[in-house]
Amino acid sequence: MKPFSLLYYILSVVLYLVALPLLIYLSFKQKYKESIPARFFLFKNPKFSSEDGIWFHVCSLGEAKALKPILELVRGKDVKITTVTHTGQLEARKYDAEVRYLPYEMLLPFWIKKQKMLIVLEAEFWYLLFAVANAKGAKVVLLNARISDKSVKKYLQFAWFYKKLLSNVEVIYAQSEVDKNRFLALGAKNIKVIGNIKLAGTISKTKEYEKPVQETIVAGSTHETEEESILKSFVQYKKQADAKLIIVPRHPERFESVYELMKNYADKHSLILSRFSERQDFDADLILVDAMGELNNMYAISDIAIVGGAFKEDVGGHNPLEPAFFGCKIITGKHFHDQKELFKYVHHVQYVEREEIHKALLASKDLPASMVEEKINLEPIVKNILEN
Fold first, then answer.
1. Most-buried pick from 63, 230, 264, 300 (CB within 10 A)?
2. How far from the centroid of its chain's Cα atoms is residue 348's Cα?
């Protein structure tokens, strides 16, 4: 092991030991009860069963979904997938692949088996993942690679470190020219701009629901504090329009707290509230979708989509392609830095501060539906990767 890699490894061990009490505590939390034991203690997380496959690593749900068109093009190959989050893991298990959680870096030298290729999506930059995979003979490829506006300063401050990390990478397929230039500034080589691979994905609904007669607003992938701003705006808007509001929180562990918030608003303003897990209909004024995998089905029956994650500075926005595909009029916040490349392809979006949501709802009446005009062809990219 090279001196820097050895020093980095020792530091990872020290951090592990320091964090051990917290890891044990968090492993009992519903959100982490599977991922933390798997990642940090290798519980039910064995090595891949074979060598010389194509290994994809993604972080969470969005990246796992983005794999679908790629995996269709490598059908028949020995495919492995690792994820970080539990939601990403559940999505990855839908594919014909061997799926694992990515272990903590300290464990990787003992866990990784030689693969033909490691394809890492977006911004999952783990030094020992790249270094160990490369040392064991895998070609390391970054696909859909990006460096967000919010994080670029941090990357440049540690350019010496990222230069070492990226020296293990054979080719980088970047989302945009801006991303390419940022990678160049970090000392990366062999960078190709391909656009965002999420544009290649097939968007579909899993169930058919009848569209409500009233104007239907869906607040999708919402985060803490966003629901309250949306509810305030909706209560104002409902005084001027016959409308109903569907809320789909981003994280299932927040279903109960969001329900309590919605109940307060329903009681205070004499609105009817329902939970989708109890009644699969849309008769109420306020509907909490407390079930996974329903968001596209909600977009399909809605007139307006308020896309969450962008009314807070620390999230970075969420994918606008799905509501645009279903013809929703899109409202989102101004903090969409992690989805900037995707929003570039979506037309007729209102970007507002949280106190302007009511105004945007009123303006929606005179605006056309959002739409996506661009597509991306993954076949030459995948062919290039497999031949590299």
1. 63
2. 23
Low-confidence residues of the chain, pLDDT below 50? none
Phi, psi of 208 (to 5 degrees): -105, 115
- Report in angstroms the alpha-carbon separations of 83 from 60, 89, 243: 6, 6, 39
pLDDT tens per residue, range 257-314: 999 999 999 999 999 999 999 999 999 999 999 999 999 999 999 999 999 999 999 9
348 contacts 330 by C-beta, under 8 angstroms: yes
Would you please indicate which residues are annotated as catalytic (active-site) residues?
63
3-state DSSP call for residue 181?
helix
Q: In the chain, where does the domain assigned CATH 3.40.50.2000 lie? A: 215-372
Phi, psi of 121 (to 5 degrees): -90, 140
Q: Are 257 and 263 in contact (CB under 8 A)?
A: no
CA triple 206-370-372, angle to 5 deg: 75
CB atoms closer than 10 angstroms to residue 94: 12
Query: Partners of 247 in the beta sheet?
Result: 219, 288
Computed on alpha carbons and rounded to an integer, the radius of gyration of the chain in Å comes to 22
CA distance 276 to 29: 24
CA angle 197, 200, 201 (to 5 degrees): 105
Domain with CATH 3.40.50.11720 in the chain: 33-195
∠ CA(36), CA(38), CA(40), 5° rounding? 60
Asked if 218 contacts 328 with a C-beta cutoff of 8 angstroms, the reply is: yes
CB 217 within 8 A of CB 306: yes
Supply the DSSP symbol for 139.
Answer: E
Res 249: pLDDT: 97
Tokens for 286? 């306020």
Residue 329 bridge partners (DSSP): 304
- Cα 278 to chain center, whole Å? 28
Homologous superfamily of 215-372 in CATH? Glycogen Phosphorylase B; (3.40.50.2000)
Class for the domain spanning 33-195: alpha beta
In degrees rounded to 5, what are phi and psi of residue 72?
Answer: -65, -30
Nearest to 233 by CA among 147, 354, 335: 354
What letter would DSSP give residue 244? E
